[in-house]
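So, can you check?
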Amino acid sequence: MVAFSIFVLLLIPIITYRIDNYGGDGILSRVIRSQSEIGISTMHDNSTWILFGISGGINTIKFLGWDLIPIFIFFVPIGFVLCIIKRNFQNMSIILILIIMLGPAWFSYLNNSDTRFLFVLYPLFCVLSLFGIEKISNKFDRKNVILALIVVGIFFASVSFLEYKKIDYESEHDAFIIAEFVSQNTGGINSSTMVSKYIQSAEINLKWPNLPTLNSDNSIPTNTKIISDTSFTTLDDFITSSRDIGLTHLVIDDKTKIDYLLDVFNHPEKYSFLNKEYDSKDQNHKLWVKIFKINYHEFDLIKK
């Protein structure tokens, strides 16, 4: 009860502040909105709800694995198994807390893909890792040497992983500059490009200090529509499906993983209904991006 009271006392000023400034508490309103979004996504079909839940579970497991890399990947599984084998109040409490804290992450992964929803588990990962480290070190006589090797190994693994995942800031800056061009010259683009994630901030930057009016759900509106292209296997299907919802251009960078967009990027001469309006190489950008305007009249003639 003391812990619960402290929890409530911490939440009350935060909730009050958010209601006064944003019109919503940011806690219950998020839950209600998430439920409505899931309802729309599944169209209230029970079988789809089941598949939706399974998808959330798969995402939870996938991102749990990502969060274990590189520091915890070897030690947490060993510690988890040891807790199961040596069942006592302390060990089972750790497992129970871990399972309970996975619940909100599973709910988040129904509609999102981000490792941050599992960051709250890092203290438990540290505890479980200690069981694994203790088990390994006890197998050797020179425990201090083994512990030193483990610390050095963790250090080098962390540095190597961070170097591998290091952000290419020059390419990211180029993506932002190109996003400003896109927001001024297009109406709707495909989603699988580095440029798409900067559209919103680019539009705000161009209109500053005049800020857009927030949507009813407190999200920031954008003039340029970003249309998902990941569920299609051919360019014709994507364009046909997306033309009525505002697709006007294809923005393709050289890092795209979608085959039909990569083919457009490498062989634009095969697509007479696409008119190239921009090539970042002409601007000496590091990030190579090509922008094509869709000529729907030509597209319809070719289909006929």
User: Anything to note?
Assistant: The longest strand covers residues 274-279.
